[in-house]
Amino acid sequence: MAEDLQIHTGTKAEQYQSLIPQVKGLLEGETDLIANMANVVAALKEQFGWLWVGFYVVKNEELVLAPFQGPVACTRIKKGRGVCGASWAQAQTLIVPDVEKFPGHIACSSLSRSEIVVPVIRQDEVVAVLDVDSVNPDEFDTTDQEYLEEIVALVNF
Predict the structure, then answer these.
(1) Running DSSP on this structure, what letter comes out for residue 40?
(2) Does residue 4 form part of some domain?
(3) Given 92, 119, 125, 155, which residue has the most CB atoms within 10 angstroms?
(4) What is the pLDDT of residue 108?
(5) DSSP assignment, residue 125?
(6) Phi-psi bin for 61: left (phi > 0), alpha (psi -120 to 50), beta?
């Protein structure tokens, strides 16, 4: 597939529905995990313009920063700490409408107002998380959850 992303407008669901085939095309035939994570975050950042989009991978009992787009980020996160660590510990997607109200929120950027974290689960274990931050409060909902879970399922971890 050409590396040009076609940006679509419309409802959030329509934007995801347009983006998913393009993500599949970017991943098709590519076996390098870092390249695939990088293209997934780039496609999401370009389509939606969120503040921060990136992966953290589980290494030695920590989440370690992986490909991302946005401001400089926290490098390592302990299990259970912040939204990413909580998503990892609970093995479930977490939607946080107001990060300032999330107990133990780790503020990598003071501009972040809302967040969604999607765990990447392979063989019943969380191997990574996809973290997305927005400058807007209450940015994320179950539509984002549904489609972001579908997108992380496409990446071969």
Answers:
(1) H
(2) no
(3) 119
(4) 72
(5) E
(6) left
Question: Per the structure block, which two tokens stand in for 138?
Answer: 């209450």
Nearest CA-CA partner of 133 in 157, 116, 108, 149:
116
pLDDT surpassing 70 at residue 3: no
- pLDDT digit string, tens, across residues 60-77: 999 999 999 999 999 999
pTM exceeds cut of 0.90: yes
Alpha carbon 113 to chain centroid, angstroms: 15
- Of the candidates 129, 118, 40, 110, the residue with the CA atom closest to the CA atom of residue 71: 110
- Give the number of domains in the chain: 1
Look at residue 146 and tell me if it is in a domain. Answer: yes
Distance, first Cα to last Cα, the chain:
21
CATH number at residue 149: 3.30.450.40
Residues 6+ apart with CB under 8 A from 88: 58, 63, 79, 80, 119, 126, 129
21 belongs to a structural domain: yes
Calculate the CA dihedral of residues 17, 66, 53, 108 and round it to 10 degrees: 160
Q: Which whole number is the average pLDDT over 10-14?
A: 96
Q: What does the block give as tokens for 22?
A: 């393009």
In angstroms, rounded to a whole number, what is the distance separating the alpha carbons of residues 110 and 19?
Answer: 29
Closest to 32 (Cα-Cα) out of 7, 66, 4 = 66
